[in-house]
Specification:
Structural class: alpha/beta
Order of helices and strands: HHHHHEEEEHEHEHEHHHHHEHEHEHEHE
Number of helices: 17
Distance between the termini: 59 Å
Largest sheet: 8 strands, parallel
Helix content: 40-55%
CATH class: Alpha Beta
Number of domains: 1
CATH superfamily: Aldolase class I
Number of strands: 12
């Protein structure tokens, strides 16, 4: 029979783990263990229209959901009894050393998510030693970004405008500022139907409606930062009034063809990446037209809904391109294990957008830094468990996609 005793303070004092509450951005983001945690913190920090602008996609958002489901289908086949005491996630992306096979994708209107905007993202990327792509629709100029992060691996993203001379002048300005990699996005001849934005009345600049006034009361810090910092505008565009969709349809060129890609190849003297490729045939044509790398991408599901899922298209695109160009992929990457899966299926690197924007909304530059720490830790742990001590050792024998449930074998 168990003998019971009267408990004393010394019996359980060592078990107590009550800590003094810690406040501030650093501690807010430090408690996040996943990108999903940062997403939930972000939800509490910004107005609903801002969160939905990042979180949402086009039409019924099926492409977005399918991208995540594709990563759920990833199956690792680890090798065992490998020496993984020392693991390196370093790799080369377009000839430059990076700490991870990762690029921070271009995102428009980034100061809408946090007043530090692109400068915070570029600074975190520089510290983590991964490339950052400034968007044509960014809220800081290419010159100012390079001045802020002069030693970063800074790329610039371009849309072809209807005003082709304005496009040419922007290319010259970007090259003069010191950028050596240009990313042409080709999947946006017109704006996609982003219904969350439409229902939220999301405009540039934010309009003061009953809903936004209510949001001001609930998120005063965000609004104070908005009205006490530089006005929100697209730094590389002069025409920014109205909704994002209206601006896209007014400025972007729906008549662009592969001839325009060849024109850009001749006009740009640095490395050229084509983003928005969604099948093997277009990948080969883009490389034929002069692309040094392509990004298998459906714009995060934010353009045409129900498009092919990038991760599922990746192996066929890699086979079509061969060693003529590097192949990147985006869409649904939310963990270091996802990054490893992309490499195993043939990608040189992957791009993230939402993942770092959630972090930016959650805590500015410190939030983005935390997101990159999470991804690096995830990737390193996944590689150890997979039996790979370097990025070069991750190959298709270690990663495969399971058939979807109900699909014919």
């Amino acid at each position: 029979m168990t003998r019971r005793i009267v408990p004393r303070w010394s019996s359980f004092s060592s078990l107590l783990r009550i800590r003094r509450p810690r406040l501030g951005v650093k501690w807010r983001v430090a408690r996040a263990d996943t990108i999903g945690d940062l997403r939930e913190i972000a939800r509490t920090r910004v107005p609903r229209s801002v969160f939905d602008f990042v979180d949402g996609a086009a039409e019924d958002e099926q492409s977005l959901r399918r991208s995540r489901r594709a990563f759920e289908r990833v199956e690792f086949t680890p090798r065992v009894l490998r020496n993984v005491r020392s693991v390196s996630t370093e790799t080369k992306i377009l000839g430059q050393l990076a700490s991870l096979p990762l690029v921070l994708a271009p995102t428009g209107f980034t100061r809408f998510m946090h007043h530090e905007g692109e400068l915070a993202v570029a600074s975190a990327a520089d510290r983590a030693q991964v490339p950052y792509v400034l968007s044509t629709m960014g809220t800081v100029s290419p010159v100012d970004l390079c001045a802020h992060v002069p030693d970063g691996d800074n790329w610039f993203q371009l849309y072809l405008w209807q005003d082709r001379e304005a496009s040419a002048q922007l290319i010259r300005d970007v090259e003069a500022a010191g950028y050596t990699t240009l990313v042409l996005t080709v999947d946006t001849p017109v704006a996609g139907a982003r219904l969350r934005d439409k229902r939220n009345g999301m405009s540039i600049p934010p309009a003061l409606t009953i809903r936004t006034l209510f949001d001001m009361a609930r998120r005063p810090r965000w609004w104070i930062n908005l009205i006490t910092t530089e006005p929100l505008t697209f730094a590389s565009l002069s025409s920014t009034d109205g909704t994002v969709a209206e601006m896209v349809d007014r400025v972007f060129d729906p008549e662009a063809t592969y001839a325009d890609l060849r024109w850009l190849r001749n006009a740009w003297h640095g490395t050229l990446v084509v983003k928005g490729i969604q099948n093997a045939e277009d990948a080969a044509l883009a490389v034929d037209a002069g692309a040094d790398a392509i990004v298998v991408s459906n714009h995060g599901g934010r353009q045409l809904d129900r498009t092919a899922t990038p991760l599922e298209q990746l192996p066929a695109v890699v086979a079509a391109v061969g060693d003529r160009a590097e192949v990147f992929v985006d869409g649904g990457v939310m963990s270091g294990a996802d990054i490893v899966a992309c490499v195993g299926l043939g990608a040189t690197a992957c791009l993230i957008g939402r993942a770092y924007l959630y972090a930016l909304m959650a805590g500015g530059e410190q939030g983005v830094q935390r997101a990159l720490e999470i991804l690096h830790t995830d990737a390193e742990r996944t590689m150890r468990l997979l039996g790979a001590s370097s990025i070069e050792q991750i190959d298709p024998t270690m990663v495969r996609l399971r058939a979807e449930e109900g699909a014919p074998l």
